[in-house]
Design brief:
By secondary structure, the protein is α+β, with helices and mostly antiparallel strands. The chain has four domains: 163 residues, Glutaredoxin (3-Layer(aba) Sandwich), CATH 3.40.30; 330 residues, Glycosyltransferase, CATH 1.50.10; 74 residues, no CATH class; 81 residues, 3-Layer(aba) Sandwich (Glutaredoxin). The strands form six sheets. The chain has a five-stranded mixed β-sheet, with helices on both faces. Strand 14 and strand 15 form a beta hairpin. The chain starts with 10 loop residues before the first helix and ends with a helix.
């Protein structure tokens, strides 16, 4: 018999609908029951692609005696962290405070009926092991403490709630200056792995926000070391097992320091961010390798992660048939069975051995340069690449016959905004009309299905949109819409981006100049979360600052500029000390400190002369530029103020470049414009 989760849309919650646990989703019904019966809340938070979440479910939540104990002594609540980042943020801070900074998923937190946390941890085994008590021992101890030591529980909950409320304050500010930006890039470099790329040791995460900041730093300063750190890392990552060599797309992270063995889930947000970093690396270097990886990621997302309605799915699991990575690994014999004589080439190219590199099987990776492999095999590089393309297609086709990892097909506004922004930018940079079509379908879907009474909702699945949007949802969708505008110059997308930004200013702003993660219309929780650091995804506050800075350049509206500066001013002190935690904030600071190139083009984009101007502005990596276009002269006010009173000179397509409230003389050729932009 199903429990209360059967009516939810989250695939993660639905995975638990047949547990013998009397799960509630987060909501008034559960909270009221806890108060009415004076029972503690057992809050369990996880997500569908989390391996240890599945382990704890199978061990404990499907175990009848454990479920009986949970149901008797607690009000059990199950939360999908991807749906409710506000709850995840609040209670993760509490768990970390109780466990000397340790945290993760599954997260298990015990709450007083009013939501104050008093004890918590992560995974607990069914039986005592790994130096941990069993989950049932924890349940017994917590229930006993709640009944017999209530005063201690109340005091602990009050102290933790007070700490969480204090955490919502700003973290200290200072001036945004060139010295800060240079020091930040240098500080990131101190943790750079010059042997394998990336930052730090195992486990190793891709950190796309920091890579993007280093690209910006190179574009602004010409610091070759910043560019080298990025390109070296991008090449190592894409040649490693963390990258799906057959289907494209990145897994979540590498469990080792050499990018070989991944944690096999694939997340939309990783691939949205990394596709953009590879795109920008190609713009800066012209290296076709980076373009190939970017296009493989986009093609993977459009092929495997796109809903018929136009949105993008969230994740695919690490496991299939109960084994982590089973879908992605190969034996040497399998390659020979599928590829015949050409298997010897594939074996050499992808480092395949009889022994394997992962539990007796092989994760495909590229251990040597193409030229080295070609020489070993006595063939040309061109011939090698032709053979590998054929082998990749054959193995991919064979892989489709395997049991695929589970798909979390809910659509999350923030992650879709990231993918929309990357895809829309790629559509113009790579001249890919198919990407334009996909971006437009996505934008149409998001605005038609995830906007309700002018406000955003967080998730959509099966025709149902729900949960009030968070700051990151607004910030990332605004970014995506501005990129769609710059790829189509359809004013609708700009207008929607500006409307959403005005909503943020009205409902998310904090008194000290920054933003909360939740709007003033959101349900009341024990604290109003305010995440200023990047995590696996960019800080919503920093993303919002970038969007507002661009809108200020388009409109001249001082409100946007002041709000952008207010959002990042609170980060400067921390960013000086811990730059690796504030990559997105540093990119926003870079944009504000450097100033934005405001480029207004007047000309029909169907004409070759106008296309030449657009190619100059949009083909190169210009992170500090925004572009507006009108196909005809504008004799008066325009809905995008940057285009007001912009006219053609001598009947020729004309470009106007401004920065810091100062405009250059209009020019009519790409060469002349290049001189203005540098």
């Amino acid at each position: 018999m199903s429990n209360r989760l059967a009516n939810e849309t989250s695939p993660y919650l639905l995975q638990h609908k047949d547990n013998p646990v009397d799960w509630y989703p987060w909501g008034e019904e559960a909270l009221e029951r806890a108060k009415r019966e004076d029972k503690p809340i057992l809050l369990s938070i996880g997500y569908s692609a989390c391996h240890w979440c599945h382990v704890m479910e199978h061990e404990s939540f499907e175990h009848a005696p454990t479920a009986e104990q949970m149901n008797r002594d607690f009000v059990p609540i199950k939360v999908d962290r991807e749906e409710r980042p506000d709850l995840d943020d609040i209670y993760m801070q509490a768990v970390q405070a109780m466990s000397q900074g340790r945290g993760g998923w599954p997260m298990t937190v015990f709450l007083l009926p009013d939501g104050r946390p008093f004890y918590g941890g992560t995974y607990f085994p069914l039986e005592p092991r790994y130096g941990m008590p069993s989950f049932r021992q924890v349940l017994t101890a917590v229930a006993e403490a709640y009944q017999n030591r209530r005063a201690e529980i109340e005091q602990s909950g009050t102290e933790l709630a007070g700490m969480l409320q204090r955490e919502t304050l700003g973290i200290g500010g200072g001036a945004i200056d060139d010295a800060l930006l240079r020091e930040a890039a240098k500080g990131m470099g101190q943790n750079f792995d010059a042997t394998h790329g990336g930052f730090g040791g195992a486990p190793k995460f891709p950190n796309p926000m920091n890579l993007e900041y280093l690209l910006r730093s190179y574009a602004r300063t010409g610091d070759d070391q910043a560019l080298t750190m990025v390109t070296f890392t991008l090449r190592k990552m894409a040649n490693g097992g963390m990258y799906d060599q057959l289907g494209g797309g990145f897994h979540r992270y590498s469990v080792d320091a050499i990018w070989l063995v991944p944690h096999f889930e694939k997340m939309l947000y990783d691939n949205a961010q990394l596709s953009r970093v590879y795109l920008h690396a190609w713009q800066l270097t012209g290296d076709p390798f980076f373009r190939r990886i970017a296009e493989e990621i986009y093609d993977y997302v459009l092929r495997e992660m796109t809903a018929p309605e136009g949105g993008f799915y969230s994740t695919t699991d690490a496991d299939s048939e109960g084994e982590e990575g089973k879908f992605f690994v190969w034996s040497k014999d399998e390659l020979f069975d599928i590829l015949g004589d050409d298997a010897r080439i594939a074996v050499e190219y992808w480092g395949v051995t009889t022994r394997g590199n992962f539990e007796g099987h092989n994760i495909l990776y590229v251990p040597a340069d193409d030229a080295v492999v070609a020489e070993r095999l006595g063939m040309s590089v061109a011939a090698l690449r032709e053979k590998i393309v054929a082998a990749r297609d054959a193995l991919y086709a064979q892989r489709t016959n395997r049991v695929a990892p589970g798909l979390d097909d809910k659509i999350i506004t923030a992650w879709n905004g990231m993918m929309l922004a990357s895809l829309a930018e790629a559509s113009r940079v790579l001249d890919r009309p198919d990407y334009t079509t996909a971006a437009l379908r996505s934008a149409e879907f998001l605005l038609s299905s995830l906007v309700q009474e002018g406000a955003l909702l967080r998730t959509w699945k099966g025709g149902r949109a729900k949960i009030d949007g968070f700051l990151e949802d607004y910030a990332n969708l605004i970014d995506g819409l501005l990129e769609v505008y710059q790829s189509t110059f359809d004013i609708r997308w700009f207008t929607e981006a500006r409307r959403l930004a005005d909503y943020v200013l009205a409902h998310f702003a904090a008194d000290d100049g920054g933003f909360f993660d939740t709007s003033n219309q959101h349900e009341s929780l024990i604290a109003r979360p305010r995440s200023l650091q990047d995590n696996a995804t960019p800080s919503g506050s920093s993303m919002m600052a970038k969007g507002l800075a661009k809108l200020a350049a388009y409109t001249g509206d001082e409100r946007y500029d002041a709000a952008a500066r207010g959002a990042v001013n609170a980060l400067t002190a921390a960013a000086r000390q811990y730059p690796q935690a504030f990559g997105e904030g540093l990119s926003a600071m870079d944009l504000l400190a450097r100033g934005i190139d405001e480029i207004a083009i007047v000309g029909d984009p169907a004409q070759a002369e106008t296309r030449a101007l657009l190619a100059e502005t949009q083909g190169k990596y210009r992170p500090g530029a925004i572009v507006a276009l009108s196909p005809t002269s504008v004799e008066g006010e325009h809905p995008i103020p940057l285009l007001s009173y912009r006219t053609m000179k001598g009947g020729a397509p004309t470009v106007y470049v401004c920065r810091h409230f100062t405009c250059q003389m209009p020019v009519t050729t790409a060469e002349a414009m290049r001189g203005l932009l540098g």
